[in-house]
Amino acid sequence: MILVLKQNPEKSKVETLIKMLNEQGLATNVSEGESHTIIGLIGDTSRLPVDLISAVDIVENVTRISEPFKAANRKMHPEDSIIDCSGVKVGEGLFQVIAGPCSVESEEQIIEVAKDVKASGATLLRGGAFKPRTSPYAFQGLHADGLKLLLEAKKETGLPIVTEIMNVNHLDLFADVDVIQVGARNMQNFDLLKELGKCRKPILLKRGLANTMEEFLMSAEYIMAGGNNNVILCERGIRTFETKTRNTLDLSAVPMLKKLSHLPVVIDPSHATGISWMVEPLAKAAVAVGADGLMIEVHNNPAKALCDGAQSLNPVQFDTLMKDIKRRVEFEGKKM
Length: 336
Ligand code: PEP
Ligand code: MN
Fold this sequence. Notes:
The structure is a single chain. α3 (107-119) packs parallel to α4 (144-157). The protein has two domains: 2-63, Alpha-Beta Plaits, CATH 3.30.70.1140; 83-331, TIM Barrel (Alpha-Beta Barrel). The chain is 32% helix and 18% strand. It is α/β, with parallel strands linked by helices and 336 residues long. It is elongated, with a radius of gyration of 21 Å. The chain binds phosphoenolpyruvate (PEP) and manganese (II) ion (MN).
């Protein structure tokens, strides 16, 4: 439910109203827009005396939100949310590129690639330490050692780091990680999402392989229901009948998610196709369709990568792509 307040309401009256709503067991989300202040109510509003609230003199109108996602809903927060990732801001005209290898493999590898992607203009460094692999015999990541190496690469380059969590029991290990990634396979790991709702770190939530946009937003809602509003959505391709590409990039998810929600949306063209030469055309498409950023896999030597080499760009290819993307981002009136 949302309450739209009359223009320039008295501050003390707003505070009294919020106190009254909190006493009804509801969390409030206050959004001060250019013309109106909106109070979003999160929780069970079914027993709220709507007539009484509508009659409060600073309230202009009361509307129920019919969608099941509330905190993530744009009606609750009409302006785009900007997510601060240790100083790197994602959303509303600020386009960011997250780049790095699928997996952290060694100190030399991650530091070299971190320096390369930074020189090309990436603003966040990715690298998996805990890898969700289809085969139990495939490289599973360097685990805690991988996180340490990422932190070293951060120290060397100043790039905030983005890395995937697979198990809720590992949360303590992620204390110094800047952005925690929830991978496609864990999008509906509700216990994990609830736990991430208790922290205040930015969460990069990837869309599940076979999940609808509504299910995707409901997973964001799990995190936000715990009080963590720092969620970035990542479209990374979905399962379809097509076999020529690893997944099918659902570009239509960008405008739709941005219409339904105030959260930023980034595109991962690497996992979307599984093919390195397809990264460039789809990265361009991501900019054109209104994405707030990109996540791209870059490896020093893709042919030798322990994971996802076929979809990884080498640093030279990434540099060429970034020059082109920068022009396109500027054309869209955004900053990179
Ligand atoms: C990844 O980012 O390396 C990854 C495993 O992605 P996804 O969860 O989208 O498959
Ligand atoms: Mn990968």
